[in-house]
Write a structure and sequence with these properties.
- There is one protein chain.
- The chain is mainly α and 465 residues long.
- Helices cover 64% and strands 4% of the residues.
- The strands form two sheets. It has a four-stranded antiparallel sheet with strand order 1-5-6-3, with no helix packed on it. Strands 2-4 form a two-stranded parallel sheet.
- α9 runs parallel beside α12 and α20 runs antiparallel to α21.
- The chain is elongated.
Length: 465
């Protein structure tokens, strides 16, 4: 039994000796190898130096303080704190214990010198890399900030050149003592200047000229009335200065336009009588033009004023303008006014009836305008204007004749001059309408005038039932 135990102990010692010899041989073989043999990755990071402190590695260093390691195609030692670019080959030299890195070898075995020069170029970011070092990012961001600051400064300079600071504008306005005035305040000053006894004629005319601009607005016209300006202007129609009469009538007409409240106050203030006096007496043409404008603004859409106009002999006053020399430019305006007043009443009668409409119809029924027009032979006065050469004048006269046809048909049928004029107009407008069609205008202006002429001719030829 002891024999077998001794034999087993001897075998164990032999095996132990073989194991030791194998280990020594393996270490010797590793020592004899070339230094290119390296580990590409360190699994443990708890290796300490001689002082017992842990060495500072790339991962432990502050990314802002890392120094860029520029690899080449030769192995170089990596110093503590250096950041290794992504894609580099890294190894641990077992002989020296240092970490080393180099660029990966190219496929053809040659060094990529252009890549190396580009990596060494300071301040240049490698846009082909999959990632960047913190130093490269810091430099790139610094350049971006500098560029942004420069652009912002250039923009601010451009804005300063175009605009002045608000402080400077405030100072300039304070020096000029600029104050924004309302329309009401301006009209008060203008009325005061017009009514002042110390104002010159030119100053009064200038005040009326400016007032005409403001009283066009309905609210301003009401304010003009409340501050007493309307009556001052009406009184101005009696001025011995023709230029004051002209501008006073102009302001009055502007204030009366589509403003019932001002219309009522004006007729109660005697404006209608004063305007008719200007039209009936010898006055400059400019004064009569403005007076006729003011009269038209007062009569339109105001049946009470129309009734008073007829009572005061207004139609006779307008009829007298056709006998006065130098008033030809007023003739078409008078005919247009008559046309508007007649059509205004006809449209109201044809409209749907309501409470307000019924009341207004009753007011218009008291206005006997058409009978007065027929009685004073306005039918012929109007038709004679067709001999005027202007197409615009003819258009307005043809419309008026068409409206008066229902009341003046018998008078027109016996008017040989009217029949001749209509025949001439038809021939003229047939040629002009044909020329329009040749030019591609199928529904032109002259075709419309031709249609008006033909309608009147057909109406005159139609037999009574």
């Amino acid at each position: 039994m002891s024999h077998w135990a001794g034999l087993l102990f001897t075998v164990a010692k032999v095996n132990l000796l073989v194991l030791v010899v194998s280990a020594v041989f393996s270490w010797s073989s590793l020592s004899d190898r070339v230094p290119e043999f390296a580990l590409t990755k360190i699994e443990e990071s708890d290796i300490k130096d001689d002082s017992g402190k842990e060495p500072i590695t790339e991962d432990d260093a502050d990314p802002e303080d890392l120094e860029v390691f520029y690899p080449t195609h030769q192995w170089q030692t990596i110093r503590p704190g250096q950041a290794v670019p992504a894609g580099s080959h890294v190894r641990l030299n077992l002989q020296t214990g240092d970490r080393e890195a180099k660029l990966p070898d190219s496929e053809n075995g040659k060094s990529d010198m252009r890549e190396e020069r580009r990596r060494k170029r300071l301040g240049k970011v490698d846009v082909d890399s999959n990632s960047f070092t913190s130093q490269e990012l810091k430099k790139a961001l610094a350049k971006m900030k500098e560029s942004e600051k420069a652009e912002r400064k250039a923009h601010e300079e451009e804005v300063r050149k175009k605009f002045r600071p608000i402080e400077q504008l405030k100072e300039e306005f304070e020096k000029l003592n600029v104050k924004m005035e309302t329309d009401y305040e301006i009209m008060v000053k203008l009325i005061s200047k017009f009514n002042s006894s110390v104002s010159t004629l030119d100053e009064k005319v200038a005040a009326l000229y400016d007032l005409e601009y403001y009283v066009h607005q309905v609210d301003n016209a009401k304010d003009f009335l409340s501050m007493g300006g309307l009556q001052l202007v009406i009184d101005g129609l009696n001025s011995t200065e023709a230029v004051l009469k002209e501008h006073a009538a102009f302001v009055l007409g502007a204030a009366l336009s589509s403003n019932p409240k001002v219309q009522i106050e004006a007729i109660e203030g005697g404006a209608l009588q004063k305007l008719l006096v200007i039209l009936a007496t010898e006055q400059p043409l400019a004064v009569k033009k403005k007076a006729l404008f003011a009269l038209s603004s007062m009569l339109r859409h105001f049946p009470y004023a129309q009734q008073q106009f007829l009572k005061l002999g207004g139609l006779q006053v307008l009829r007298s303008l056709f006998r006065q020399k130098g008033t030809e430019t007023l003739h078409v305006r008078v005919v247009t006014l008559l046309y508007d007043l007649i059509v205004e009443k006809m449209l109201l009668e044809d409209s749907q009836h309501g409470d307000q409409t019924e009341e207004k119809i009753q007011q218009y029924q008291q206005v006997k305008l058409v009978p007065a027009v027929v009685e004073q032979d306005w039918c012929v006065v109007v038709s004679n204007l067709l001999a005027m050469p202007e197409h615009d004048t003819r258009e307005k006269v043809l419309k008026t004749v068409g409206v008066l046809m229902a009341f003046c048909k018998e008078r027109y049928r016996g008017d040989q001059a009217l029949s001749t004029t209509l025949s001439l107009l038809r021939s003229e407008y047939e040629e002009l309408a044909a020329e329009e069609q040749r030019e591609g205008d199928k529904d032109g202006y002259f075709k419309e005038l031709l249609g008006s002429v033909n309608t009147i001719i057909q109406e005159l030829r139609r037999k009574q039932p």
